Protein backbone atom coordinates (compact mmCIF):
# COMPACT_ATOMS: atom_id res chain seq x y z
CA UNK A 1 0.00 0.00 0.00
CA UNK A 2 0.92 3.62 -0.39
CA UNK A 3 -0.69 7.01 0.09
CA UNK A 4 -1.05 9.41 -2.83
CA UNK A 5 -1.63 13.13 -2.25
CA UNK A 6 -3.22 15.33 -4.90
CA UNK A 7 -4.51 18.89 -4.84
CA UNK A 8 -7.83 19.08 -6.69
CA UNK A 9 -9.79 22.25 -7.37
CA UNK A 10 -13.42 22.56 -6.38
CA UNK A 11 -14.26 24.69 -9.39
CA UNK A 12 -13.59 23.86 -13.02
CA UNK A 13 -10.75 25.36 -14.99
CA UNK A 14 -7.02 25.10 -14.47
CA UNK A 15 -5.71 22.48 -12.02
CA UNK A 16 -5.39 23.79 -8.47
CA UNK A 17 -2.06 22.12 -7.75
CA UNK A 18 0.85 20.43 -9.42
CA UNK A 19 0.29 17.24 -11.42
CA UNK A 20 0.72 13.90 -9.69
CA UNK A 21 4.37 12.86 -9.75
CA UNK A 22 6.83 10.75 -7.74
CA UNK A 23 6.71 13.24 -4.82
CA UNK A 24 2.94 12.69 -4.56
CA UNK A 25 3.37 9.10 -3.33
CA UNK A 26 4.49 7.89 0.08
CA UNK A 27 6.84 5.06 0.75
CA UNK A 28 5.31 1.63 0.31
CA UNK A 29 3.57 0.54 3.53
CA UNK A 30 2.94 -2.88 4.96
CA UNK A 31 -0.17 -3.67 6.94
CA UNK A 32 0.34 -5.25 10.36
CA UNK A 33 -2.68 -6.24 12.48
CA UNK A 34 -5.00 -4.10 10.34
CA UNK A 35 -2.88 -0.94 10.67
CA UNK A 36 -0.23 0.65 8.51
CA UNK A 37 2.13 3.26 9.86
CA UNK A 38 3.90 5.86 7.81
CA UNK A 39 6.25 8.31 9.43
CA UNK A 40 7.16 10.38 6.43
CA UNK A 41 7.04 14.06 5.64
CA UNK A 42 5.45 14.58 2.25
CA UNK A 43 5.41 17.69 0.12
CA UNK A 44 5.77 20.51 -0.59
CA UNK A 45 3.05 20.66 -3.20
CA UNK A 46 3.51 23.92 -5.03
CA UNK A 47 2.32 25.98 -6.70
CA UNK A 48 -1.24 25.85 -5.43
CA UNK A 49 -3.26 28.32 -7.44
CA UNK A 50 -6.35 28.62 -5.21
CA UNK A 51 -7.55 27.94 -1.69
CA UNK A 52 -10.82 26.63 -3.15
CA UNK A 53 -9.29 23.20 -3.45
CA UNK A 54 -9.08 19.92 -1.56
CA UNK A 55 -6.10 17.93 -0.41
CA UNK A 56 -7.09 14.45 -1.56
CA UNK A 57 -5.51 11.43 0.09
CA UNK A 58 -5.89 8.10 -1.68
CA UNK A 59 -4.91 4.81 -0.10
CA UNK A 60 -3.62 2.72 -2.98
CA UNK A 61 -3.04 -1.02 -3.09
CA UNK A 62 -0.04 -2.02 -5.12
CA UNK A 63 -0.35 -5.41 -6.77
CA UNK A 64 2.36 -7.05 -8.85
CA UNK A 65 -0.12 -8.38 -11.39
CA UNK A 66 -2.24 -5.31 -12.12
CA UNK A 67 -2.32 -1.56 -11.94
CA UNK A 68 -2.58 0.25 -8.63
CA UNK A 69 -6.08 0.20 -7.15
CA UNK A 70 -7.53 2.92 -4.92
CA UNK A 71 -8.91 1.27 -1.78
CA UNK A 72 -9.97 4.33 0.20
CA UNK A 73 -10.02 8.09 -0.05
CA UNK A 74 -10.57 11.25 1.97
CA UNK A 75 -10.11 14.95 1.46
CA UNK A 76 -9.48 18.14 3.45
CA UNK A 77 -10.67 21.57 2.32
CA UNK A 78 -7.70 23.96 2.09
CA UNK A 79 -9.71 26.89 3.46
CA UNK A 80 -10.03 24.93 6.72
CA UNK A 81 -6.24 25.10 6.98
CA UNK A 82 -5.74 28.77 6.10
CA UNK A 83 -4.42 29.72 9.56
CA UNK A 84 -1.15 28.07 8.41
CA UNK A 85 -0.65 26.27 11.73
CA UNK A 86 0.32 22.59 11.86
CA UNK A 87 -2.56 20.40 13.05
CA UNK A 88 -2.99 16.85 14.16
CA UNK A 89 -6.10 15.46 12.51
CA UNK A 90 -8.05 12.21 12.57
CA UNK A 91 -10.01 11.82 9.35
CA UNK A 92 -12.50 9.12 8.41
CA UNK A 93 -11.88 7.29 5.15
CA UNK A 94 -14.39 6.36 2.51
CA UNK A 95 -13.73 2.83 1.27
CA UNK A 96 -14.32 1.78 -2.31
CA UNK A 97 -16.76 -1.12 -2.53
CA UNK A 98 -16.52 -3.93 -5.07
CA UNK A 99 -18.97 -2.03 -7.29
CA UNK A 100 -16.65 1.00 -7.21
CA UNK A 101 -18.88 3.20 -5.04
CA UNK A 102 -17.40 5.07 -2.07
CA UNK A 103 -18.98 4.23 1.28
CA UNK A 104 -18.28 5.67 4.74
CA UNK A 105 -16.27 3.34 6.97
CA UNK A 106 -14.73 3.07 10.41
CA UNK A 107 -11.24 3.30 8.91
CA UNK A 108 -9.30 6.42 9.87
CA UNK A 109 -6.11 8.16 8.97
CA UNK A 110 -4.12 10.10 11.56
CA UNK A 111 -2.03 12.89 10.15
CA UNK A 112 -0.20 16.09 10.90
CA UNK A 113 -0.89 18.67 8.20
CA UNK A 114 0.07 22.25 7.52
CA UNK A 115 -0.94 24.41 4.56
CA UNK A 116 1.57 27.23 4.22
CA UNK A 117 0.61 29.54 1.40
CA UNK A 118 2.66 32.51 2.58
CA UNK A 119 5.66 33.00 4.81
CA UNK A 120 4.61 36.61 5.40
CA UNK A 121 1.10 36.05 6.75
CA UNK A 122 2.16 34.43 10.08
CA UNK A 123 4.81 37.12 10.61
CA UNK A 124 2.31 39.86 9.78
CA UNK A 125 -0.23 38.36 12.23
CA UNK A 126 2.37 38.35 15.02
CA UNK A 127 3.20 41.97 14.26
CA UNK A 128 -0.52 42.85 14.53
CA UNK A 129 -0.74 41.03 17.88
CA UNK A 130 2.30 42.89 19.24
CA UNK A 131 0.97 46.22 17.97
CA UNK A 132 -2.35 45.54 19.73
CA UNK A 133 -0.54 44.77 23.00
CA UNK A 134 1.57 47.91 22.60
CA UNK A 135 -1.58 50.04 22.04
CA UNK A 136 -3.14 48.64 25.23
CA UNK A 137 0.02 49.35 27.22
CA UNK A 138 0.29 52.89 25.81
CA UNK A 139 -3.39 53.53 26.60
CA UNK A 140 -2.89 52.35 30.18
CA UNK A 141 0.26 54.47 30.51
CA UNK A 142 -1.57 57.56 29.24
CA UNK A 143 -4.36 56.90 31.72
CA UNK A 144 -1.87 56.64 34.56
CA UNK A 145 -0.09 59.83 33.49
CA UNK A 146 -3.42 61.66 33.36
CA UNK A 147 -3.86 61.16 37.10
CA UNK A 148 -6.09 58.13 37.27
CA UNK A 149 -3.57 56.54 39.60
CA UNK A 150 -5.93 56.10 42.56
CA UNK A 151 -7.87 53.25 40.90
CA UNK A 152 -4.68 51.43 40.04
CA UNK A 153 -3.13 51.90 43.51
CA UNK A 154 -5.96 49.93 45.06
CA UNK A 155 -5.63 47.22 42.41
CA UNK A 156 -1.87 46.91 42.85
CA UNK A 157 -2.07 46.80 46.66
CA UNK A 158 -4.39 43.77 46.65
Distance between the termini: 64 Å
- In total, the number of domains comes to 2
Widest sheet, order of strands: 1-2-3-4-5
Overall SS class: alpha+beta
* Number of DSSP E strands: 5
**Backbone CA Rg:** 24 Å
Helix content: 10-25%
Q: Mean pLDDT across all residues, rounded?
A: 83
Shape: elongated
| Topology order in helix (H) and strand (E) letters | EEEEEHH
- The number of helical runs is 2
Low-pLDDT windows of residues: none
Q: Beta-sheet strand percentage? A: 25-35%
Please explain how this structure is put together:
- With 158 residues, this protein is α+β, with helices and mostly antiparallel strands.
- It folds into two domains: 2-113, no CATH class; 120-157.
- The protein is built from two helices and five strands.
- The chain has helices at residues 120-145, 149-157, and strands at 2-9, 53-61, 69-77, 87-96, 102-113.
- The longest helix has 26 residues, at 120-145.
- The chain is elongated, with a radius of gyration of 24 Å.
- The termini are far apart.
